Amino acid sequence: MLQDENTHTIRTEAEPTADAESRSRALVAGLVHDLAAAPSGVGFIGTCLDRVLETWHLLEARAVISDAELGPQVFNAGRRPLDLDVMPSTLLRRGPGIHTEPAVPGAEDDLDAIAELCEIALTLDRLRYESLHDPLTGLHNRRGFDEQLAAAISRSLRYRWSFGLVIIDLDGFKAINDRIGHQGGDAVLRQVGERLRGGLRSGDVAARVGGDEFALLLHIDGPRSLSAILDRLHGTEGFGDAGDVTWTTGLAMCPDEAATVHDLYRVADQRLYAAKVDAQDLPGANQTGIGS
Amino acid sequence: MTAGLDRLELELRCVPGIIAVGFEHAGEELFVQAVVLPSIAPVDFRDQIRRIVDANARNGAHLEIVVDGLDPGGPHLSRQAVSPRAATR
Lengths: 292, 89
Known about the structure:
The structure holds two protein chains of two kinds. By secondary structure, chain A is an alpha+beta fold. Chain A is built from eight helices and ten strands. Chain A has helices at 18-37, 41-56, 88-94, 108-132, 142-159, 173-199, 226-234, 261-279; strands spanning 2-3, 9-10, 60-67, 71-76, 97-101, 163-170, 205-208, 213-218, 247-254, 287-289. Chain A is elongated. In chain B, helix 1 (2-13) packs antiparallel against helix 2 (45-56). By secondary structure, chain B is α+β, with helices and mostly antiparallel strands. Classes of the chains: A alpha+beta, B alpha+beta. Chain A binds chain B through residues 39-43, 70-76, 79-82, 84, 87-89, 92, 125-126, 129, 138, 194, 197-199, 201-202, and chain B through 2-3, 5-6, 9-11, 13-14, 16-17, 19-24, 31, 33, 35, 37, 40, 51-52, 54-55, 58, 64, 66, 68, 70, 75, 77, 89.
């Protein structure tokens, strides 16, 4: 609390009271509990800042968090876009922590504790993300895809919804690597990933499940529409220095043909290898194994 | 939708140089703001950001990339719309 020259009291900061201190402690305790159950770190940080706003009736609350891999990160309450009158670089210079407007005297320790929770949440989020995604393409990796696949099987069995697992194998990828080098090969994998990501419908999932193997979880009723979907995803343009790259695919339908992760892969792999054999007669074309 | 935003936000923050991400809903429309420190960001950061938003915002989004370069002339704003999927393919 400050006083001006005419002794009128002016409030420029939120005033600490015993009640406020009690609410502050309760807030931190509640957030510790929430962190344990939070499915998402960035979502948790947004929740933290919203609670800070509510608890102290503030105008603004921002978190500056330093992450070992991501570097410094700025978060705004409510995940709102930042007011660019205060550029994030200015906030970064103020250092890690929770920065509020107005300041909350007496709550520094609690705000520091909340900032530490946010830092833990962001690290957990990043580690979880890295464990489930392929760094080259940004798609799910095998582990992340299998989680999605298991959840899709459960829904399929419960509601009798059909979906297809499609395994995609790039044809002659070793030869492509030998011809244009591993960096060129990586560029092809990235382009395949981008085409899959960009072309899928909402709810469908793409993953890179092996070196040159991709997988799709497609919500389709059967194999009839598969060729058109795969043609659209593949596109007609070449793949940079590699030029034309074809792929061979195998489909397994859930629940009609298989209803476990293992069995779906087995059926799709069998069809993929059968299609590979057929492809020997038709080089230079995409092949799809869909069963009889 | 929240899970989708969580993923979008985290993917954007994984691009080196992105230091802040914000969202705003206006009816059905999503506005995405990404603030970038260009000294850390890869040269193709605009393409990377656009691809990530395009892949995650299935119904399209308006994207604002703010380059925070500690420039005394102020921030440089670059607005681009990531169109709804049907319009871009």
